[in-house]
TrEMBL record:
Subunit-structure text: Heterododecamer (2C3:3R2) of six catalytic PyrB chains organized as two trimers (C3), and six regulatory PyrI chains organized as three dimers (R2).
Cited function: Catalyzes the condensation of carbamoyl phosphate and aspartate to form carbamoyl aspartate and inorganic phosphate, the committed step in the de novo pyrimidine nucleotide biosynthesis pathway.
GO cellular component term of the entry, any: cytosol
Descriptive protein name: Aspartate carbamoyltransferase
Biological or metabolic pathway of the protein: Pyrimidine metabolism; UMP biosynthesis via de novo pathway; (S)-dihydroorotate from bicarbonate: step 2/3
GO terms, molecular function: amino acid binding; aspartate carbamoyltransferase activity
Entry binding sites for carbamoyl phosphate: 54-55, 104, 132, 135, 260-261
GO aspect biological process, one term: amino acid metabolic process
Reaction(s) catalysed by this chain's protein: carbamoyl phosphate + L-aspartate = N-carbamoyl-L-aspartate + phosphate + H(+)
Key words, A-Z: Pyrimidine biosynthesis, Transferase
Residues annotated as binding L-aspartate: 82, 165, 219
HAMAP family in alphabetical order: Asp_carb_tr (MF_00001)
Source domain of life: Bacteria
Length: 314
């Protein structure tokens, strides 16, 4: 692959390769000296048009640990504010010869569009409601490490699926790896068209969580609700928030995941989020750095091979 724009174009073998390479970076990141030369001499530019804590920090750390020259564009202080378009901004940065562009944008499809205009590798760090591929990959690595496999698991994705690029990328990835995925939440946030992904839909947490191996919670993404119906947080927690009573319906060794940022007391009880026997939320953050290192390493290998082929006329 030239870019990482989504999970959709990836073959299961490619997903496995990314996770296997990421495993080597988990080991590296746990050492005192966390450095490799995989991206030495390459330039990585991070362009975040939407807020981020985990994704931006981990892409920056990933690039630095692999020896890249990393630049974080402060988009709020850029000429976008003077009316420059996304494409003109991308072309401007492209003229500075970056090798890797990491882009988060509020509009679905914006990162794909940008990738068509530049001649470097582009990584989607989340575009609107469309995809968040590195989140799904880090979730997959977390599940594989916790459960010892990434196939034939029963996985419940719960909450605001409609507005979630995390849910979409996970649905695609977990389906490709032959897992059984259930979506759990109110019909306003889990519409029946999601059945096209081959999953079951529940609007009752107790039934939806019955005997699952993995419980993945999502926050209410109010920033994408466009003035539509927003449930009361108190009522939402009562019916759909993960607490000990609801979690008791899952398998006794089921793990609890959340991509973050969390809203404690809305979609998840704080004691469940902090329960180190069930919650793998901090492991997800750790896997995020390793997966982003792996994704950039593999794209850089393809970039170098393409450039060598172009130079030798092959
Ligand atoms: N999970 C995730 O994308 O978190 P951030 O918005 O903090 O990057």
């Amino acid at each position: 692959q030239k870019h990482l724009l989504g999970i959709e174009p990836l073959h299961p073998e490619e997903i496995k390769t990314i996770l296997d390479v990421a495993e080597t970076y988990v080991d590296l990141n746990r050492q005192a000296h966390k450095h490799s030369d995989a991206l030495k001499g390459l330039t990585q530019i991070n362009m975040f048009f939407e807020n981020s804590t985990r994704t931006q920090a981990s892409f920056e750390l990933a690039g630095k640990r692999l020896g890249a020259d990393v630049m974080n564009m402060a988009m709020q202080a850029s000429s976008i504010k003077k009316g420059e378009t996304l494409i003109d901004t991308a072309l401007t940065l492209n003229a500075m010869h970056p090798d890797l562009l990491v882009v988060r944008h509020p509009h679905s499809g914006a990162v794909d569009l940008l990738a068509q205009k530049v001649n470097c590798a582009v990584l989607n760090a989340g575009d609107g409601k469309h995809e968040h591929p590195t989140q799904a990959l880090l979730d997959a690595l977390t599940i594989r490490r916790a459960k010892g496999r990434l196939h034939r698991l029963n996985i419940a994705i719960c909450g605001d699926v409609t507005h979630s690029r995390v849910a979409r990328s996970n649905l695609i990835l977990l389906g490709k790896m032959e897992n059984r995925v259930r979506l759990v939440g109110p019909p306003t946030l889990v519409p029946s068209q999601f059945k096209e992904f081959g999953c079951e839909i529940y609007d009752n947490m107790e039934e939806g969580l019955k005997d699952v191996d993995v419980v993945m919670m999502l926050r209410l993404q109010k920033e994408r609700m466009d003035g539509g119906f927003i449930p009361s947080e108190r009522e939402y927690f009562h019916r759909y928030g993960l607490d000990a009573a609801k979690l008791a319906h899952a398998k006794p060794d089921a793990i609890v995941m959340h991509p973050g940022p969390m809203n404690r007391g809305v979609e998840i009880d704080g004691t469940i989020a902090d329960d180190i026997n069930r919650s793998v939320i901090q492991e997800q953050v750790e896997m995020g750095v390793a997966v982003r290192m792996a994704a950039m390493d593999l794209l850089a290998r393809n970039l170098k091979a393409d450039r060598e082929a172009a130079n030798t006329g092959v």
